[in-house]
Amino acid sequence: MKAYLNAIANSYGEVLFISRPWVGVVFLGLSFLYPNMALMGLVAVLASYLFARAIGLKKGFLDSGFYTYNPLLVGFAIGRVFELGLLSLFFTLIASVVTFALTIALNHFFTHLFKLPILSLPFVISGSLVFLAARKYSGLFVGYLYPTRTPVWELGLPFWLEGYFKSLGAIFFMPQVMVGMILALTIFLVSRIWFLLSLAGYFSGSLVTGLMTGSMQLSFADYNHFNFILIAMSLGGVFLIPSPKSYLLALVAVAVSTLFVDAVELIWASFGIPAFPLPFVLVTLLFLYILTLLEFPLIPSVIKESPERTLDLHLTQRRRFPNLGPMVELPFSGQWKVWQGFDGPWTHQGIWAQAYDFVVTDSRGETFQGAGDRLTDYYAYKKPVLAPVTGRVVALDQSRPDTPIGSPEPPGSWGNYLVIKTEEGFFVELSHLAQNSIKVKAGDWVMAGYLIAQCGNSGYSPEPHIHLQVQIDANIGSPTRPFCLGNYRTQGTYFHQGRPATGDQLESLIKSRTLTRKTAFSLDRSFTYLAKSRGKSEEVTWVVEMNEDGSSALVSKRGKLYFGKQQNVFFVYSVEGTDPYLKALYQALPRLPLVEGDQLVFEDHLDLEAFFAPLAKGLLLLASSFFGPLAEVKGRYRFDGPGLVKGQVKSGWGGWAMDTYVKLDQQLGFLVIEAGAIRLELIESKLISQKFQTKGS
User: Fold this and answer.
1) Does position 83 have pLDDT exceeding 60, yes or no?
2) Contact partners, residue 662, CB within 8 Å, separation at least 6
3) How many CB atoms lie within 10 A of CB 82?
4) In this structure, are 683 and 542 located in the same domain?
5) Rounded mean pLDDT of 283-301?
6) Closest C-alpha to 128, from 269, 254, 300, 280
7) End-of-domain residue from the set 441, 467, 482
8) Range of the domain at 5
9) In the chain, at which end, N or C, are there fewer CB atoms within 10 A of the end residue's CB?
């Protein structure tokens, strides 16, 4: 029953992009200022919900309220123009089913063809049909859109402020100051960014209209200016990541929409129907379509339940997974030194600027022993060269002799080389290889880490080294493109991906089968823990489930933790809900390198949501949306023995710190998890579907 009530409540919140049940309850309560409207709205939501279940839609599709808020608005519209009765109820049932069907059809069409949201378009279409049909139902038609049967509280506010509150209330067909004030307070509590956008959108649009019409009084008295509020909130805080550029685009869209608001009012009035949120829908879709075509960088990959959370996720993901281009493994084993990196001073210039050269050095930093006048004096010479990627060999040459020290071939000579094309479609070149040392032939499929050649000194090479680059095609000498190296240790710290600098000593790390096995979570496996926090104890159970997009998650009664593996690393991507114990796992181990390495140190960035109190977090993110990131949470972790990881998480704001500890189980999962005052001890893990059980050890 609770799930059904939450789904209904979310329908009300979705009108203002808010998916929080308590917000929906507030909006539902406000609607009862107009009982006809409130009842018709509830009937529309329930009718849509029952119709959805009757045609076989799963309950999960309806939980967010996305599919039912348009029928809700149609119910509100009917309740504001029709008297309550059997015929009006029947008409509401029909209209809500039509609106729900339009929602499903338009959402599929817009998502697959344009990659755009449908917003309130189903309501605009069905609402217009309702008002056109109402011209033939004169026996039921009330005759005015906004009856004044409810109490009106006159607070003596300035006309411009009164206009803002009434326009805000008009979104729910209740253009009253008190209603608008409650809505404004609710928006403020949910998101300060949305609240400021609602103000900026309304006042900028109304000022433009006032200047164009010559009357500020009439402009601020127009309730249809709620369209400005919706445009600003949607573009500035929903479909774009909050930033100065997003805010500017939102205000530009509001200015453009003034033409739409006034034109649509006149056109729709000729048919005897209100404009509804049509200007909001048209302008928002227009701007989003253009920005999508241009691949605008501030379009979020994931839209969270508030602008602050979307911004927090964006900033965290940008730190955790920087866009450094294709990732390739090191083409060697052991320790090698970056002799020349990107934009190197010698040969990595122009179209070949993005490349790496690697050499082997001794404890003195020398690349050779003895006099250094023979190829065999150099530590790198004839060392194994490993495939840095998995793919197909598309080009190679191993016929050129290794040149003596001090007598390289002319500049531009690549010597013996090999080019691999990956499944992702990029090309990796290795050059200056030893003569006749290539172990594969054109057309062969190679796996990352395979032995494919030996290091040599062919071509324009002053001494033996491995040259590595990613290029635009298979031809030798093709222009390079940006890329990054993966899974290496330098200066004691592990990097999942990065671009080491010239002079860095890199160590290739071997994949750990033990750690890989211990993090191989299968579906329907449950983990039961004894959780302790500040003197309280309770048992908690997590179950491994698959999400609709194919990703995996640990799910409890109060939350969900998303996890996965990428290139020899186990990642906790994010945590949703209110489960403090899932959050503790995220804090204690946001990532786990699945590689072998004594005293391995690794770092990660975590989102502000997991650490700061709501008010402090909200203020920091609001300021960050204007001035750039003002705070970050960074964790530094270390393998302190087999299966033991100790760490400390620090905030760059206020000097906050927290110690963490994780002990892996001998078989699977985490035996002990500690984060601050929280401690979890594994009691048992088992496969639910097969009733298989293993005790924690």
Assistant:
1) yes
2) 588, 589, 644, 645, 647, 670, 672, 673, 674
3) 22
4) yes
5) 94
6) 269
7) 482
8) 1-150
9) N
Alpha carbons 390 and 449: distance in angstroms, whole number? 8
The predicted-structure confidence for 25-52, as pLDDT tens digits, reads as follows 999 999 998 888 999 999 999 999 888 8
Entry pTM: 0.85
Pairing of β 493-498 and β 601-606:
parallel
Clarify whether residues 420 and 567 are in a common domain.
Answer: no
Pairing outcome for strands 484-490 and 327-329: parallel
Helices 86-109 and 69-81 pack at an angle, to 10 degrees, of 150
Q: Do 127 and 171 have their domain in common?
A: no
| 413 neighbors 477 (Cβ within 8 angstroms) | no
Helix axis angle for 2-13 and 69-81, nearest 10°, is: 70
Residue 180 belongs to a domain = yes
Q: Identify the burial level of 171 via C-beta atoms within 10 angstroms of its C-beta, where 0-12 means exposed, 13-18 middle and 19 or more buried.
A: buried
Asked whether residue 505 is domain-assigned, the answer is no
CATH code of the domain in which 185 resides: 1.10.3430.10
The confidence score (pLDDT) of residue 668 equals: 92
Most confident of 156-160, 271-275, 594-598: 156-160
- One-letter amino acid of 660: T
Tell me: pLDDT of 690 over 60.
no
Residues 545 and 630 in one domain: yes
Q: Which of 150, 177, 210 corresponds to the end of one domain?
A: 150
What pLDDT is recorded for position 59? 63
Percent of the chain's residues with pLDDT above 70: 93
In terms of residues, how long is the chain? 697
Q: Which of 235, 242, 158 is nearest to 201 (CA)?
A: 235
> Does residue 51 sit in the same domain as residue 143?
yes
SS3 content of the chain, % helix, strand, coil (to 5): 40, 25, 35
Quote the pLDDT of residue 275. Answer: 66
What domain count does the chain have?
Answer: 4
Amino acid in position 234: S
Using CA atoms in the order 545, 550, 552, 553, what is the torsion angle rounded to 10 degrees? -60
**3-class secondary-structure state, position 671:** strand
**Residue found under tokens 């911004």:** 311
CA dist 461 and 365 (Å) reads 19
Cα–Cα distance, 162 to 410 (Å, whole number) = 79
Residue 630 within a domain: yes
156 pLDDT tier (thresholds 50, 70, 90): confident
584 and 664 together in one domain: yes
Same domain, 350 and 253: no
678 in the same domain as 586: yes
Residue 144's pLDDT is 44
Task: Kindly report the CATH number assigned to the domain that includes residue 362.
Answer: 2.70.70.10
